[in-house]
Amino acid sequence: MKTVPLRWLIVAPFVVLALISGVTMYLVSTITISNIANTVGIQYIKEVEGRIYDRVQDFMAPLNNIVEVNLNAFSHRPELLNNLIPIASRFYEQAAPYAQMTFISIATVDGRYLASAQDPIRRGQHNIAANFVYKALIMEGFEYDPVNAIGAKIQSDPTFSYDPRVRPFYTDAIKERGMTWSDIHPYYGYPALGIGLSAPIYNVEGALLGVTATSIALIELDQYLESLKLVDGAYIFLAEENGALIATSEQGELYRTADGVTTRANLNNHPNEIFQLASQNLEEGTQTLNIKGQEYLYYVRPITLKYGKSWLIGILIPSAYHKKVLTDYTHSTIIITLVLFVCIGLIGSLIARHIGKPIQLLNKAANDNNIKSIQVLPQPLSGIREINSLSQGLSSMADNLFDIMQNLEEKVSERTSYLQGENKHLLESSLTDELTGLYNRRGFNIAFDQVLKNVQKNKQQFTLVLCDIDHFKYINDKFGHTVGDFALVSVAMSLKKYARASIDIVVRYGGDEFALVFLNTDVAQVEKRLNSIQDECASTPVVKSEYITMSFGVVHVSEGSSISAEELIEQADKKLYQAKNDGRNKIVI
């Protein structure tokens, strides 16, 4: 077989690869750049769309949740509607965490109305509105009083006749006999759009008790779209299915009022021609629009909200942007690749010359089939450290080869055993809470999924409990995190004490929240254990004379029931929330 010099063996492949790479990249860039550019553009659009989709869902979630919680509370405890004044505190606490929440209200069949209200523009202060405090059906504004719920009257607020039973939020909910969305509308006297969700309240006999509702200001969505950093010439809109605009990425009016008539801005009559053209196709998917010689990549996706409401996200970006970026990148890559391969070829030639001679000596010694030929190699063999190391290694290898073969199996066995122990330790660490020694949330998810499969397969009953420490922040703030950690460890010990070690599951779900899963245990037994836990907390101070209490949300699943982990956790969380609202230190089943 004909041999070739090492120098050419190193240099020739690099020269050939440089030519092939340059030609290939040129062909790819000129033939497929349009398709690649569109793919890049779609990827960019979907990344932006995903952020907007998540933001809208998170933004609207409190509206649904609060209506559902209040509907459930009033339906099952109609006596709460006998005196609306204490409900003011409930509404105030529900609204306080959400800057977008403008109203949370209750209207009864006898015309009484109470709401936690907030200015949709100058947000941050929730007040109370009521039409029954001093005179029936006369609306007045009041300061919120943490002690008495309804405080002093706000003199600057207007006083007017108000019967909620004739208002659309009330009449529409009763007509639909279920959750009902209001039309998006401007707030009276404020430059902001809002939307509401209302639901009729019936008692267990089916008698109408009233209507509960929430409303949020949508100005924050408009500000969010404006704040997104997009490529030059890009546009985003959020609209209803009929094209009525909710928010856009550019400044502009979303509605106009003239002669007492309010007209919403719509894509089809927008001053921007791009939006007008976009309004002609609001079907989900991607397409290309041409406007005065400018090509845009256009993407539409619906956002499905709960209870039948659907909005549209639309994104338009100029195709020239991502095509130019890809073209510039491709040309730069071709040039850099060619220069790189030429340099590598020259360097390879010098390296081949420098390392060729000592490698030939090593090759001759290795082919002599004589260990002494390797041992007598001159030291140092070359000015290259690796070649010297190779020469020394060959000498050592001959001496150690026999010993290595004898000890190899033992070393492999020891190493395997060690790695198995390390893997087990790492797995346990990843599934266990460091402070309490309980499962963490990840451990809970794995264990709970397995429990669900087993109990559904074997048609067994089980109970999920979510619980947390009442006023835990107060303990941390007053006594410090060391006492707070002690309280968490004490609670963990109590929970483990009343759970069966090899059967039930005890988890630190997060913060001061814990989860328990009792298998093959009826509700009465579970409640007895929870009462024992409460008694133990009440008799054991965490510091000095400071005791803690706990609230529990319990969901029992009977034999053969099929339900997902997410639904179970959601139900238990709602019951825990109810226990908190009922005064804490409660067990809600």
Task: Please describe what this structure looks like.
The structure is a single chain. With 589 residues, the protein is α+β, with helices and mostly antiparallel strands. Among the domains are: 63-217, Beta-Lactamase; 371-428, no CATH class; 441-588, 2-Layer Sandwich (Alpha-Beta Plaits). The protein has helices at 6-76, 87-95, 168-176, 219-227, 273-278, 319-366, 371-375, 385-431, 441-458, 472-479, 481-497, 523-539, 565-581, and strands at 101-108, 113-118, 126-130, 138-145, 149-153, 160-161, 180-181, 185-186, 193-202, 208-217, 235-240, 245-248, 255-258, 261-264, 285-291, 294-304, 310-318, 462-469, 505-510, 513-519, 550-557, 587-588. The strands form 4 sheets. Strands 1, 2, 3, 4, 5, 6, 7, 8, 9 and 10 form a 10-stranded antiparallel β-sheet that branches. A 5-stranded antiparallel β-sheet has the order 12-11-17-16-15. A hairpin with a 6-residue loop joins β8 (185-186) and β9. The N and C termini lie far apart (86 Å).
Here the CATH topology of the domain at 63-217 equals Beta-Lactamase
Give the termini distance in whole angstroms: 86 Å
Q: How many individual helices?
A: 13
CATH class of the domain at 63-217: Alpha Beta
What is the CATH superfamily label of the domain at 63-217? Answer: PAS domain
Number of strands: 22
CATH architecture of the domain at 63-217: 2-Layer Sandwich
The fraction of residues assigned to DSSP E strands is 15-25%
Poorly predicted sequence stretches spanning 5 or more consecutive residues: none
Main beta sheet, described?
A: 10 strands, antiparallel
Mean pLDDT: 86
Structural class: alpha+beta
Helix content: 40-55%
GO molecular function, one term: diguanylate cyclase activity
EC number: 2.7.7.65
Catalytic activity: 2 GTP = 3',3'-c-di-GMP + 2 diphosphate
Protein name: diguanylate cyclase
